[in-house]
Amino acid sequence: MCTTAEKKANRKLGFLRLAMVSSATAIIIAIGMAVAYFNLPAAGHPCSVRNATARDAAGRTMWCNPTAEASHDAVWQYAPGA
After folding, report:
1. Domain assignment of residue 21, given as a range
2. Predicted local confidence at residue 20, as pLDDT
3. For 61, which of 5, 57, 78, 82 could close a Cys bridge (C-beta 3.0–4.6 Å)?
């Protein structure tokens, strides 16, 4: 059997653990969102998967296409009609 003081201590410890896990989770989610935001495609940025499509920050469709100068380099370009 636990005494009242031990029960209070265990309850406080439980809340402390919950707060630590919650704050760590929030920080990890914030870092993931920041990484995703800064990796949005923009016209002229290099890309690695040819003919891949994505949307830019404004919602316009972009696709990964080889550059006119060098056929081995691919960059994000706006899709025709976007």
Report:
1. 1-39
2. 98
3. 82
